[in-house]
């Protein structure tokens, strides 16, 4: 799944550490999500959307594997 987490985080002026603290997760979790190595739980995705005043779909873009048109 692709995401725009880095862009939103920077726009709102959050460091990875500050965002992680706000969400109650580790900085490594934020790094892994940003790099696309970890897909957040639905609960965490909703928390991120709430923090950035955006919809989940604005932050995360589902991409089917093998479907690169």
Task: Based on the model shown, name its key terms.
69 residues, mainly alpha, 434 Repressor (Amino-terminal Domain), two-stranded antiparallel ribbon, 5 helices, 54% helix
Model description:
This is Helix-turn-helix transcriptional regulator. InterPro entries: Cro/C1-type_HTH, Lambda_DNA-bd_dom_sf. It comes from Rossellomorea aquimaris. One of its GO terms (molecular function) is DNA binding. The chain is mainly alpha-helical and 69 residues long. Helices cover 54% and strands 6% of the residues. It has a single domain, classed as lambda repressor-like DNA-binding domains (434 Repressor (Amino-terminal Domain)), CATH 1.10.260. It has a two-stranded antiparallel ribbon with strand order 1-2.
| Strand order within the widest beta sheet | 1-2
Average pLDDT works out at 93
In the CATH hierarchy, what is the architecture at level 2?
Orthogonal Bundle
> Would you give the CATH topology?
434 Repressor (Amino-terminal Domain)
**What is the assigned CATH homologous superfamily?**
lambda repressor-like DNA-binding domains
From the spread of the alpha carbons, the general shape counts as globular
Number of helices: 5
Beta strands, count: 2
User: Cα-atom Rg, whole angstroms?
Assistant: 12 Å
- Give the CATH level 1 class: Mainly Alpha
Looking at how many chains there are and whether they match, the oligomeric state comes to single chain
- Helicity level: 40-55%
Q: Major sheet: size, sense and barrel closure?
A: 2 strands, antiparallel
* Poorly predicted segments: none
Secondary structure category: mainly alpha
First-to-last CA distance: 15 Å
Number of domains: 1
């Amino acid at each position: 799944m692709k995401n725009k987490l880095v862009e939103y985080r920077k726009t709102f002026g959050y460091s990875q550490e500050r965002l992680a603290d706000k969400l109650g997760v580790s900085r490594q979790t934020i790094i892994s999500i940003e790099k696309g190595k970890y897909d957040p739980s639905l609960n965490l995705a909703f928390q991120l959307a709430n923090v950035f005043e955006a919809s989940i779909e604005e932050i995360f873009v589902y991409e089917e594997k093998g479907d690169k048109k």
